[in-house]
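[09:14] KT: can someone run the structure on this one? pasting the chain below
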Amino acid sequence: MTAASTCGTGCTSPTTAPASNSCCLKARGIGVGVHYRPNHLQPAFGRWRRDLPATEHVAGEILTMPFHQHLAETDIDHVVTTLGEVLTSVGTA
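[09:31] RB: done, C-alpha cells below
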C-alpha cells in the first residue's frame, strides 16, 4: 500500500489504486463506482461461498466509468482528461 495522496479536490486517496480515487473523479463531475461485487459474494451464490482473495482484491480496483451511447464528444473529452489529471496527481500515470 502506498502513502495517502491528494488529487487537489480535497479528497485523499489511501492508495494509488483506481477505485480508491473515485472520490477525486466524483468531485470533478465524473460518475464512477464499483460496478459489481464478485459473483461469489452475491447472496444468490451464498451456498457456494468461499474465499477468493485475488478476485476480491481486483474487484476493489476496477471502476465503472461513464460509457454509453448518449455521451457527447465533450463529455468523453472531460472524462478522459479528468481521469488523466487524477492519475497524474496521485502518481499512477
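[09:33] KT: thanks! The domain at 5-89 is CATH 3.90.1150.10 (Aspartate Aminotransferase, domain 1).
[09:34] RB: yep, looked fine to me
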